[in-house]
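Weekly modeling sync, notes
Attendees: S.R. (lead), two postdocs, one rotation student

Agenda item 3: backlog of single-chain predictions. S.R. asked that every request posted to the team notebook include the full sequence so nobody has to chase files. The rotation student volunteered to paste the first one in as an example of the format we agreed on. Action items at the bottom.

Example entry:
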Amino acid sequence: MTSVHKEIIIDTEPAAVWAIIGDFAGGPVRMAPGFVTASRLDEPDLRVVTFADGTVLRERLIALDDELRRLVFSIVGGTMRPAHDNASMQVFPHGDGRSRFVWIHDVRPDDLAGPIGAGMEHGLSVFKQTVEPSSGRLGQVTR
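Predicted structure, as returned to the notebook:
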């Protein structure tokens, strides 16, 4: 199994970052508008996420902890079907008015680490641009 670990510092308060990440149903579109084109609940703990390249993932909610600002989910179906997947996203305070966002995917088979890591990198880049006050787009969805 391979762990893909990505972090980014965001010039936005942790509560504002968590408001997006902690939104299991709509968070993916709010996090990376344009990269993620749709996200909806299929069951109370299962979301369907559609990406601009046509990839569709079914993700099961494992844990949502508002106090720790931590979300855990697993890819359980869709156009990518890993033998195992477990992902966590967590938001930490990082100095005055900033956040450190940590995203980890544990995945098997190992050859999925490349595509998953690339998607995480791109998603984080879009997320940073979307939520930082200088962008004027805090959590907005653009099409």
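Discussion: group reviewed the output briefly. Residues 2-129 form a domain with the Alpha-D-Glucose-1,6-Bisphosphate; Chain A, domain 4 fold (CATH 3.30.530.20).
Action items: rotation student to repeat for the remaining queue; S.R. to check formatting next week.
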